[in-house]
Write a structure and sequence with these properties.
96 residues; mainly alpha
């Protein structure tokens, strides 16, 4: 079992993720921004990467790239998948 990241920076990173997920705008673009924020927090050592988070982020990447690879505009299934995966990541971040 891994111990969750603590401290003001970890709390701020979790809060920033939640704010980005809840932001008005396109779900896919919000997901990309939230993902970028998490990657920055991991790189800075503010949050701890877990195997579950890695798996969820991989799933998110697949969902975000699905429409682009098919030559379609973003939205639809990718947006719904992104929202679902982001909710799961939010729950997992409590322990990251």
């Amino acid at each position: 079992m891994t111990m969750g990241s603590t401290g003001a920076a970890a709390v701020a990173a979790r809060s920033a993720f939640a704010d980005q997920v809840a932001a008005k705008g396109h779900a896919v673009e919000n997901a990309r921004a939230a993902w970028a924020g998490l990657e920055a927090a991991f790189a800075a050592g503010v949050l701890q990467r877990t195997p579950a988070l890695d798996a969820m982020l991989h799933d998110l990447a697949v969902a975000l790239d699905a429409d682009v690879a098919a030559g379609q505009r973003l939205g639809g299934k990718s947006a719904e998948a992104a929202r679902f995966i982001l909710r799961a990541i939010g729950h997992e971040l409590a322990d990251a």
